[in-house]
């Protein structure tokens, strides 16, 4: 979240796909949009003057190509979650949470952003609290892809 303003300030149009493995309630029971879906609507679009959301039930999870096809064109798409995908990644690692570092076993990880010193890694380590340095890393990586 903190990275987005820096990327936008660099002139990038950035989209985010946030994945959750939890059951997510996208609508509120009792609201008419909820009742429309319950009554059988294939999709319900909630439209305001400054935003839009489309609700629909999926028969199966969307693969990455289908997810990206639903987005407007962007210069960069950030995926939060979906760690299993074979795409370039920036790992966010907080040792205090007690979770294992993914980098040694995932060749798609370009760098690790962390809030603590880690042993030497095969990829750059970035200070999780230095948003400018993380943004600069992402921007350099993106330029190298062009």
Q: Could you give a quick summary of the protein structure above?
A:
Helix content is 24%, strand content 23%.
Mean pLDDT: 92
**What sequence of helices (H) and strands (E) makes up the elements?**
HEHEEHEEEEH
Q: What is the first-to-last residue Cα distance?
A: 25 Å
What share of residues are in beta strands?
15-25%
Oligomeric organization of the protein chains? single chain
The class by helix and strand makeup works out as alpha/beta
Low-confidence stretches: none
Number of strands: 7
Number of helices: 4
**Globular, elongated, flat, extended or rod-shaped: what is the shape?**
elongated
- Tell me roughly what share of residues is in helical segments: 10-25%
* Order of the strands making up the biggest sheet: 5-6-7
Q: What is the C-alpha radius of gyration, as a whole number of Å?
A: 19 Å
Q: Largest beta sheet, briefly?
A: 3 strands, parallel
Describe the structure in your own words.
It is a single chain. By secondary structure, this protein is of the alpha/beta class. The protein has four helices and seven strands; from the N terminus they run αβαββαββββα. The strands form three sheets. A three-stranded parallel sheet has the order 5-6-7, covered by helices on one side. The two termini are 25 Å apart. The relative contact order is 0.17. The mean pLDDT is 92.
């Amino acid at each position: 979240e903190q990275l987005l303003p820096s990327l936008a300030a660099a002139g990038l149009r950035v989209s985010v796909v946030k994945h959750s493995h939890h059951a997510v309630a996208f609508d509120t029971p009792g609201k008419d949009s909820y009742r429309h879906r319950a009554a059988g609507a294939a999709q319900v679009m909630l439209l305001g003057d400054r935003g839009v959301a489309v609700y629909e039930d999926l028969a199966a999870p969307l693969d990455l190509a289908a997810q990206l096809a639903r987005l407007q064109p962007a210069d960069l798409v950030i995926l939060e979650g979906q760690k299993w995908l074979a795409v370039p990644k920036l790992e966010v690692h907080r040792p205090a949470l007690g979770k294992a570092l993914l980098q040694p076993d995932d060749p798609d990880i370009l760098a690790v952003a962390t809030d603590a010193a880690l042993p030497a890694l095969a990829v750059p380590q970035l200070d999780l609290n230095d948003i400018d340095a993380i943004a600069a890393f992402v921007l350099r990586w993106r330029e190298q892809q062009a």
